[in-house]
Specification:
This protein has two helices and 13 strands. The chain is an alpha+beta fold and 222 residues long. The chain has one domain (28-191). A hairpin with a 2-residue loop joins β2 and β3. α1 runs antiparallel to α2 (199-221).
């Protein structure tokens, strides 16, 4: 009786492994960014971490949004375009802001399903670090980012489901200010594809199930 039970359980266990669902993935994610200026430009001076002003009386000012919170859908698993920071500018000499350093810190706040907001207001994921270059007379800046351009929470580091990845467009992207003097720093949020079991492992599970099935047939024919 015991041998018969083992032969029955073996193939069933093998099939369960084959159809076992993957780790639960997030359907959506809420995150926030903290954006700051880290250095002045060739002709501009930091007023504070969110504002920089062209040198001289009445010089133009660029402000970077200090805190942006967004929720993005992760299904289907395709890159979801998002805004990581917004710059606003007043009239001035664009070239004065060449060389301005920018830092954008990303914090993951919550996911659906799972992953409640931590008590400290979010879990730090990574930083995008870049530098502005002005295109004279065009109300346009180029921001050049250092690598890495993508970052994600380490697996098992928190209670969040794994696999949410944040990527800034780069290594360079164009920031075109609109008529209101606003320009966005963009990127995307996506889900890292789950890694399937290697073919060898799947074949092994299948062989394990076949062996169990054969043993069951032999025991019944005796």
């Amino acid at each position: 009786m015991l041998n018969w039970f083992k032969c029955l359980v073996a193939p069933a266990a093998a099939m369960a492994l084959l159809i076992m669902p993957a780790t639960v993935r997030a359907d959506s994610v809420t995150f926030h960014t903290v954006a700051t200026f880290t250095s002045g430009g060739t002709g501009a001076t930091l007023l504070n971490s969110q504002q920089i002003q062209e040198n001289g009386v009445g010089g133009g000012i660029i402000t970077i949004a200090g805190d942006i919170t967004r929720t993005e859908t992760l299904t289907p698993p395709i890159p979801q375009g998002t805004v990581f920071a917004t710059l606003s500018a007043t009239a001035g000499n664009d070239t004065a802001f060449t060389g301005v350093g920018v830092k954008i810190d990303v914090f993951q706040d919550s996911t659906v399903p799972g992953g409640p907001t931590p008590p400290n207001g979010g879990t730090f994921v990574g930083s995008a670090i870049g530098m502005l270059t002005a295109l004279p007379g065009s109300s346009t800046f180029i921001i050049t980012f250092q690598t890495p351009l993508s970052f994600t929470l380490p697996t098992g580091a928190t209670t969040f489901p794994p696999g949410v990845i944040y990527t800034v467009d780069g290594p360079t992207q164009t920031i075109q200010f609109d008529v209101a003097g606003l320009g966005d720093v963009r990127g995307n949020v996506n889900e890292v594809p789950a890694v399937p079991l290697p073919g060898v492992a799947l074949a092994g599970y299948g062989l394990f199930g076949l062996i169990g099935g054969k043993r069951l047939l032999r025991s019944r024919n005796k």
